[in-house]
Amino acid sequence: GDIVRLIDFENPDANDWLALNQFTVIEGTTNRRPDVIAFVNGLPLGVIELKNPGTEAATIAGAYNQLQTYKTQIPSLFRTNAVLVVSDGLIARIGSLTANEERFMPWRTTDGSEVATKGLPELATLIEGVFEKRRFLDMIRDFTVFGAADSGIFKIIAGYHQFHAVKRAVTATVRAMPLSPDRASDGASIGGSDGDRRVGVIWHTQGSGKSYLMAFYAGQLVRHPELENPTIVVVTDRNDLDEQLFTTFSVCRDLIRQTPVRVDSREDLQKELTRASGGVVFTTIQKFAPAKGESVYPVLTERRNVIVIADEA
């Protein structure tokens, strides 16, 4: 039979896109009209709450609190929600359904090539940067994860720096990939040249979401057709960092389409890297040391699609 998709992620224009101002939502005896609702194929995926910049009470906090009221009074509107946006006319912030006010963050670029100057009105940059059709669908499919805490399930969406850094890193990864033997023999190449195996570096400040960026990146790699189901090796130099990253990736296992593995010995590492394809393997760099009394470490794999992510390289 035919395949029916709630959303066609491959062909953005094949979907029905609609943004409605003052759309009335009635639930029980409550009648509410959020400022703007973004629909894709009839699914309310975005809710935007705007405050009139001409009034003294127009604040980001007020817009955020209004959304919390909506979540309590008309919860059915948020069953398929992907993003929430608040703005006071000058400042604009985006957050997930479960984000507290502090986690509503700016979106400072449209296409990732330039960062908007601080102090200028932010809403236009956020709307164009997030709600452009291709980027919005990518955000839903590739840059949203769920986790569980004592307080319940929480939802995380990528920030603009994570979104665009991952996009660039994936492009660089495909470029860096060495040719497969059959393609090398006929002169074909990925990205126009045989890869040099060097993807590059992403520089981070503390608290900028490095762990989740790495998970979003891994999620993109495992789906990329030219990488042919790669094996991803995450290397750190401390056990606590290894555990922290492993925990983050475990939360994101739906995104990376597999359960990550944490190796506990040199022998375990060698065994994990003899696999034919796939896998997300966590190890500390110390496990690459030769065994006692040996000076040469064995070649673990000759495969071309093993991708190493080194944290604090």
The main sheet orders its strands as 1-4-5-6-7
User: What proportion of the residues is helical, as a percent range?
Assistant: 25-40%
Oligomer: single chain
Contiguous runs where pLDDT drops below 50 for at least 5 residues: none
Number of strands: 13
Order of helical and strand elements: EEEEEHEEHHEEHHHEHHEHEE
What sort of overall outline do the alpha carbons produce when their principal axes are compared? elongated
Largest sheet: 5 strands, mixed
Measured between the Cα atoms of the first and last residue, the distance is: 50 Å
Overall mean pLDDT stands at: 92
Structural class: alpha/beta
Alpha-carbon Rg, integer: 23 Å
Give a short overview:
It contains 9 helices and 13 strands.
Task: Characterise the protein shown here.
The N and C termini lie far apart (50 Å). The protein is α/β, with parallel strands linked by helices and 313 residues long. The protein is built from nine helices and 13 strands.
